[in-house]
């Protein structure tokens, strides 16, 4: 079939529209959004514009162009899906791997206590026994876990001022204990 200057693209399209569906069916493409059909139509238009009669029949050129454009779109979609799946898996891994405290949709890693050198566990227990629960949280998260006061406040669902207050109370108790000499916690 040669390109006839008297035939418009609309006429040629009506005669060859089935080629798009045929190539989609051969490639096993389900197209509820008609994205692949549109790509096939565009491929047919480009083939119509670029067709050179001395290079072969128009029908063959349509088939070749439509098929290759559909394959390119399939590859692009598969690549995009791969990247999205990889990113999704990475996000899930970051949220679920290891020990985390979740509050307000923000993960906070728990300090890895075995990595902290506890030279005298008895002293740590003694300190914990003399502190309130919130004061110990300040020691555990701020001193041992190196979390900011703001992050602790978010995690514990309280104000920054409350967390600062816990820290002040801990420092007062430590100062008192060191003055009395009953607690030699930070000394070597």
Describe what you observe in this structure:
The protein is mostly helical. The chain folds into 2 domains: 9-95, no CATH class; 100-180, Arc Repressor Mutant, subunit A (Orthogonal Bundle), CATH 1.10.10. 65% of the residues lie in helices and 4% in strands. The protein has helices at residues 9-26, 35-50, 58-96, 121-129, 133-144, 149-155, 160-180, and strands at 100-103, 106-109. The protein has a two-stranded antiparallel ribbon.
Element layout with pairings:
Blueprint: H1 9-26, H2 35-50, H3 58-96, E1 100-103, E2 106-109, H4 121-129, H5 133-144, H6 149-155, H7 160-180
Antiparallel strand pairs: 1-2
Helix pairs in contact: 1-2, 1-3, 2-3, 5-7, 6-7
Write a concise keyword list for the protein shown above.
188 residues; mainly alpha; Arc Repressor Mutant, subunit A; two-stranded antiparallel ribbon; 4% strand
* C-alpha geometry: rod-shaped
Structural class comes to mainly alpha
Strand order of the largest sheet: 1-2
Mean of residue pLDDT values: 79
Task: Summarize this structure briefly.
The protein has helices at residues 9-26, 35-50, 58-96, 121-129, 133-144, 149-155, 160-180, and strands at residues 100-103, 106-109.
């Amino acid at each position: 079939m040669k390109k006839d200057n008297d035939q418009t693209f609309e006429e040629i399209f009506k005669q060859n529209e089935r080629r798009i569906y045929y190539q989609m069916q051969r490639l096993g493409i389900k197209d509820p959004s008609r994205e692949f059909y549109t790509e096939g139509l565009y491929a047919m238009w480009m083939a119509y514009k670029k067709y050179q009669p001395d290079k072969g029949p128009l029908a063959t050129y349509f088939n070749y162009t439509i098929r290759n454009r559909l394959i390119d779109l399939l590859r692009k979609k598969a690549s995009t899906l791969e990247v999205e799946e990889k990113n999704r898996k990475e996000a899930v891994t970051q949220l679920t791997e290891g020990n985390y405290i979740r509050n307000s949709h923000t993960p906070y890693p728990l300090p890895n206590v075995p990595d902290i050198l506890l030279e005298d566990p008895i002293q740590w227990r003694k300190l914990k026994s003399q502190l309130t629960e919130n004061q110990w949280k300040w020691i555990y998260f701020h001193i041992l876990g190196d979390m900011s006061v703001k992050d602790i406040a978010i995690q514990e669902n309280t104000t920054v001022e409350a967390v600062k207050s816990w820290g002040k109370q801990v420092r007062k108790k430590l100062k008192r204990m060191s003055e009395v000499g009953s607690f030699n916690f930070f000394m070597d």
